[in-house]
Amino acid sequence: MSVEVKRNKGLVIRSAIPIENKTWENWNAQIHIFPNAIFEPSTLEDLIDIVKLAKTNNKTIRCAAQGHTTSSLSITKNYLVVVTNLNKVTVQRHPKYGWTATAEAGTSLSDFDNVIRNYDPPLTIDSATVYNTFRVSGVIATGSHGAKSIMPDQLCSMKIVTSSGEVCEFSEEINETEFNAAKLNLGLLGIIYSVTFRVQPMYNLRLTDKFIPNNEWLNPKNIKNLLESSDAIGINYFPFNGFNQSDPNSLDPNRDQIWIKYWVRTDEPVSFTQQQLEQSRKSQRQGAIQQYELRRSLIQNSEATPNISAKLWNDLTSKGNTSFVYQAPDAIHYVVSEEGVKFYVMELAFKVSPDFSNVITEYFFIMELLYDFARKGKFPINMPVEFRFIKSSEALLSITFNKDPEELYCFVNIMTVPGTPNWEEFTQLIAQRLFDKYKAKPHWAKEWEFIPNVTSYLSEVLSDQIKQFEKVRAKYDPDKMFFDNKSLQDIFSKSLDSQNGKDQN
């Protein structure tokens, strides 16, 4: 942003200079907007000035980082604040947590990892998203997660510029209730300036991938035992992986395998030098682009999905089961981000039953539904379905909100190449089933607004959480400067209206 002093209705505005005639689109190009003004702040003072300017001009504000959020959370007709130029990282000793690291809102997870990894002593975060291109404010505001917990639960404090133009700090020590609202706030409390994570000394993880026939391994006991003996696990279903083009009877779910991924802490040395790792990442990027082009070809030729999917599966499993040791951030970010590879993605979370049986039930339901679609000539997905197990959270708007810290939630992540026919029909059926059976909730950052009646549903299942969150939101944004999102407005208004009606009765 240009650093200038401008007078606006008596206010001294140092640096709130918008970028003229610029549009903004999100990562997968499904959202394209032309707001009244776009700002790219570089300092805390910039953020304060933008808020003052919005207040003077009676404008609302929404924020964006790298744009990987595929729901409407960043959409606005007024002021859009893109925070990617706020990218400083500092490390400090903490009397309670040992080590902490503070990152400005636009810091990528990659840059954050690099700073703390190269600190003396080397440090790391305990859990993070698979991709390291995401920005810290985006993953915090939306409750994004890795393989074991949501990222907001690794915060010890954060700073937000609220609608008054003040910089407010939130932490458990200052006010636990307000912190549980702030650390996953969907942009409703103000502009996140910085977040402070608990970090720890660097450690290594053994990352193992196994490919086993469904009927040989997939049962509740095996999932529970593996989870208890690992740092984190994921199970994946690769569509139609048992298909054989030369055998017309091979389109059969009984031929399919499960892909199991798990991480275990270890004192063993890493398996690769940094140079070898960089070369591997380069090959992964090239492979990701080639696979993406194959999947894109299915948009116009969807009946080839079983054949292409089986080919990609055979390429993946050609070396058999693998097990290698990495430094923690390299194992956590195990998928190399390739920004040119885009997809639709819906993710839902439901509470895991004590014996894990509902996880098995829903795994087979999704697989069988996919084959049911295939028998009708419909092939709605062409990428793996992922199941991950995430700890409960006390963040009020978390989809894993639960006061019991021992509760687990299963996250089901369903992806496909944009434009794949029948995607919405397929995912809506899954969403409705999980809503009805488990009161499942969608990941805020991914696609969910196309699900029929979803705002009414969320207003009901999040009712108690919204009531608590609204008290904090109204305190810091009484004029609703940051409440510029139709879906959230619908959810909150329906929920609060319902509560008011109950109170009157």
UniProtKB/TrEMBL annotation:
<dbReference type="InterPro" id="IPR016167">
    <property type="entry name" value="FAD-bd_PCMH_sub1"/>
</dbReference>
<dbReference type="InterPro" id="IPR016166">
    <property type="entry name" value="FAD-bd_PCMH"/>
</dbReference>
<dbReference type="InterPro" id="IPR006094">
    <property type="entry name" value="Oxid_FAD_bind_N"/>
</dbReference>
<dbReference type="InterPro" id="IPR036318">
    <property type="entry name" value="FAD-bd_PCMH-like_sf"/>
</dbReference>
<dbReference type="InterPro" id="IPR016170">
    <property type="entry name" value="Cytok_DH_C_sf"/>
</dbReference>
<feature type="domain" description="FAD-binding PCMH-type">
    <location>
        <begin position="31"/>
        <end position="202"/>
    </location>
</feature>
<dbReference type="GO" id="GO:0071949">
    <property type="term" value="F:FAD binding"/>
</dbReference>
<dbReference type="GO" id="GO:0003885">
    <property type="term" value="F:D-arabinono-1,4-lactone oxidase activity"/>
</dbReference>
<comment type="pathway">
    <text>Cofactor biosynthesis; D-erythroascorbate biosynthesis; dehydro-D-arabinono-1,4-lactone from D-arabinose: step 2/2.</text>
</comment>
<protein>
    <recommendedName>
        <fullName>D-arabinono-1,4-lactone oxidase</fullName>
        <ecNumber>1.1.3.37</ecNumber>
    </recommendedName>
</protein>
<comment type="similarity">
    <text>Belongs to the oxygen-dependent FAD-linked oxidoreductase family.</text>
</comment>
<dbReference type="InterPro" id="IPR016164">
    <property type="entry name" value="FAD-linked_Oxase-like_C"/>
</dbReference>
<dbReference type="InterPro" id="IPR010031">
    <property type="entry name" value="FAD_lactone_oxidase-like"/>
</dbReference>
<dbReference type="Pfam" id="PF04030">
    <property type="entry name" value="ALO"/>
</dbReference>
<dbReference type="InterPro" id="IPR006093">
    <property type="entry name" value="Oxy_OxRdtase_FAD_BS"/>
</dbReference>
<keyword id="KW-0285">Flavoprotein</keyword>
<dbReference type="InterPro" id="IPR016169">
    <property type="entry name" value="FAD-bd_PCMH_sub2"/>
</dbReference>
<keyword id="KW-0274">FAD</keyword>
<dbReference type="GO" id="GO:0016020">
    <property type="term" value="C:membrane"/>
</dbReference>
<dbReference type="Pfam" id="PF01565">
    <property type="entry name" value="FAD_binding_4"/>
</dbReference>
<dbReference type="InterPro" id="IPR007173">
    <property type="entry name" value="ALO_C"/>
</dbReference>
<keyword id="KW-0560">Oxidoreductase</keyword>
